[in-house]
């Protein structure tokens, strides 16, 4: 816009409890916002004016600046838009928002008015229900079908060897279901707010607690922890659950009799967040397992993942306001967790 004086929202919008922002339809940047929006995003309006969409978009959420600007421009053309978006607050916390866009003329110039609501709690609940539905419709149903079929075979078989084969398969599938239900319980615990709240801890110390526990459980594994940067964050038991799953995956899926897993604590060079990376020497995680994490893909009976361990990691990390990435190579996998950082208590 040509005016050097910042365009202001009509005063009545300051009284609203929902977030309100005024977007420049050409650049897609925010030119004004109310206090509710500032509180939601964690930035002042002055700072928001200087930020591009990428600065407050979640890095791992596939909704780019071009996507957002396109929605803004459609609204500027008189076609209201509504969509869900994942943003990164100033402190690094990720939240889900619903945004409604419509055209608004201020002082003779066209802008796009955004009505923004924090829908994080609703989205988490919806996603949890969707996940449990997937498990019931695919994983659990398929395993129960196998169990039922094997049981029928036992009834009709006389050959002892065949009976043994069927009973072994039944035992295998029963164990699969037991592990699956335990994973679902872990997800439930991760997405239910802790009664005692979160604890402010040194990241290296928390990682060592889990590593020491798993070293006793897997004495043949070589578990290494490296601290590149001292980092602090606020966590609950969900972090330990996620880290335990990531390390155990690197142990049990290794082709070596002495598997090696390295956990690195560092400061993310891109965002300044706490970065915890777990590297192994296992075969690359199959596409089908990572595709199962993509909520935009509807899994079918022949294309769903075999377990819910990765779901547990993802949900535990996201319950703490963080995000998770996967890097795969022939030499191994690296799973990285990112969390909002906290100050070192000695610096306060």
What oligomeric state best describes the polypeptide chains here?
single chain
Radius of gyration: 24 Å
Backbone shape: globular
Task: Please give the count of helices.
Answer: 9
- Beginning-to-end CA distance, first to last residue: 42 Å
Architecture overview:
- The chain is α+β, with helices and mostly antiparallel strands and 348 residues long.
- It has a 5-stranded antiparallel beta sheet.
- Helix 5 packs parallel to helix 9.
- It is globular.
Produce the secondary structure layout.
Blueprint: E1 19-23, E2 30-33, H1 35-41, H2 45-50, H3 65-76, E3 81-88, E4 94-106, E5 109-118, H4 120-156, H5 160-191, E6 199-202, H6 203-217, E7 222-227, E8 232-235, H7 237-252, E9 260-267, E10 274-279, H8 287-291, H9 309-319, E11 323-329, E12 332-339
Parallel strand pairs: 7-9
Antiparallel strand pairs: 1-2, 1-5, 3-4, 4-5, 6-8, 9-10, 10-12, 11-12
Helix pairs in contact: 4-5, 5-9, 6-7, 7-9
Summarize this entry quickly.
With 348 residues, the protein is α+β, with helices and mostly antiparallel strands.
Which short descriptors sum up this protein?
single chain; 348 residues; alpha+beta; five-stranded antiparallel β-sheet; five-stranded mixed β-sheet; 9 helices; 41% helix
């Amino acid at each position: 816009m040509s005016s050097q004086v910042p365009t202001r929202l009509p005063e009545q919008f300051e009284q609203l409890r929902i977030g309100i922002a005024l977007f420049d339809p050409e650049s897609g940047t925010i030119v004004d916002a109310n206090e509710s929006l500032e509180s939601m995003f964690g930035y002042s309006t002055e700072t928001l004016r200087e930020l591009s969409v990428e600065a407050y978009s979640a890095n791992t959420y596939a909704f780019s600046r071009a996507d957002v600007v396109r929605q803004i421009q459609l609204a500027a053309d008189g076609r209201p838009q509504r969509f869900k978006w994942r943003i990164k607050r100033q402190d690094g916390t990720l939240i889900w928002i619903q945004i409604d866009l419509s055209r608004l003329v201020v002082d003779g110039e066209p802008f796009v008015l955004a009505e923004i609501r924090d829908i994080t709690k609703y989205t988490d609940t919806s996603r949890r229900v969707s996940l449990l539905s997937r498990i019931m419709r695919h994983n659990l149903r398929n395993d129960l079908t196998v169990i039922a079929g094997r049981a029928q075979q036992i009834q009709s078989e006389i050959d002892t060897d065949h009976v043994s084969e069927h009973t072994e398969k039944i035992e295998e599938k029963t164990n699969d279901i037991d592990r699956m239900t335990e994973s679902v319980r872990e997800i439930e615990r991760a997405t239910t707010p802790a009664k005692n709240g979160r604890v402010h801890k040194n990241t290296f110390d928390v990682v060592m607690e889990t590593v020491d526990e798993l070293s006793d459980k897997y004495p043949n594994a070589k578990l290494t922890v490296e601290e590149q940067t001292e980092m602090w964050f606020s966590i609950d038991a969900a972090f330990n659950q996620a880290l335990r799953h990531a390390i155990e995956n690197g142990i049990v899926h290794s082709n070596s009799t002495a598997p090696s897993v390295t956990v690195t604590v560092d400061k993310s060079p891109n965002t300044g967040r706490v970065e915890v990376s777990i590297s192994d020497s296992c075969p690359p995680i199959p596409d089908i397992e990572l595709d199962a994490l993509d909520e935009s893909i509807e899994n079918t009976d022949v294309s769903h993942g075999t377990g819910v361990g990765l779901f547990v990691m993802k949900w535990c990390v996201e319950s703490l306001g963080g995000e998770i990435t996967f890097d795969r190579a022939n030499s191994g996998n690296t799973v990285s967790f990112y969390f909002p950082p906290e100050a070192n208590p000695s610096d306060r």
